[in-house]
Design a protein that fits this description.
By secondary structure, the protein is of the alpha/beta class. The chain has a single domain, classed as Rossmann fold (3-Layer(aba) Sandwich), CATH 3.40.50.360. Strands 1, 2, 3, 4, 5 and 6 form a six-stranded parallel beta sheet that branches. The structure holds flavin mononucleotide (FMN). The site of flavin mononucleotide has 13 residues, from loops.
Length: about 210
């Protein structure tokens, strides 16, 4: 079912006075990855709107140790700090064998409380399924770390047929509408959960 956005902007609807800090996380680390094109489009959509700051988290640039390994890992500490700062997350992920890529799972498992009581949205791509099977799996994973996932997502089926060589969409209207709805939901949850976290620390109910 499609929904019309209310006349009030999402900024006016929420109590968030500061910009929403979005961490955009790459799902693929493959050399020559299509993720660069989809993430670039996603960033351009966010930057075209007021009210967001953007931190791009690329697991290809991080050297993460196995989860729970002892010792100091500067990249892990850096990741922890950046995710802690974020009010909301957008995962840009392809589909690999009906799931999501292993490096993304490694990144998710590397931290824990940084995800808690925060919203997560998805931009996915792949073949006929547009990466939606990867997204459905990620929903199961994120509930375990006490994050909440957005109902609406953006997905690109046969993505390589949808973007031109400069990374622009041939037919942008549908994807831009999907992005609008997804960002509206992400903003609502980011604002609501930030207020809630500030009011009652989530740690008292996290297990
Ligand atoms: C190991 C592997 C498995 C894949 N499995 C699927 C799949 O199950 N469904 C799908 O739609 N595309 C699948 N693909 C195609 C990818 O979605 C496509 O190659 C995409 O561009 C990969 O993202 P990346 O280039 O950013 O790494 C697979 C690709 C790889 C490398």
């Amino acid at each position: 079912m499609s929904a019309q956005l209310p006349a009030l902007s999402i900024r006016e609807m929420t109590t968030m006075n500061e910009k929403i800090k979005v961490a955009l996380i790459y799902g693929s680390i493959r050399e020559g990855r299509y993720c660069d094109i989809v993430a670039k489009w996603t960033c351009s959509q966010i930057r075209a709107r007021d009210g967001y700051t953007l931190d791009i988290v690329d697991p290809a640039t991080l050297s993460l140790s196995p989860p729970l390994e002892r010792g100091v890992n500067p990249d892990l500490e850096d990741l922890r700090e950046r995710l802690e700062q974020a009010d909301a997350f957008i995962i840009v992920t392809p589909e690999y064998n009906h799931g999501y890529p292993a490096p993304l799972k490694h990144l998710i498992d590397s931290v824990n409380k940084e995800w808690q009581a925060k919203p997560v949205a998805f931009v996915s791509y792949g073949g006929v399924s547009g990466g939606l099977r990867a997204v459905e799996q990620l929903r199961q994973v994120f509930v375990e770390v006490h994050a909440t996932t957005m109902r609406n997502s953006v997905s690109f089926a046969n993505a390589w047929e949808q973007f031109d060589e400069r990374g622009n969409l041939y037919a942008p209207v549908r994807a831009e509408k999907s992005m609008e709805m997804m960002l509206a939901q992400l903003s609502w949850w980011a604002s609501a959960l930030k207020d809630a976290r500030n009011s009652i620390p989530y740690s008292i109910v996290a297990t």
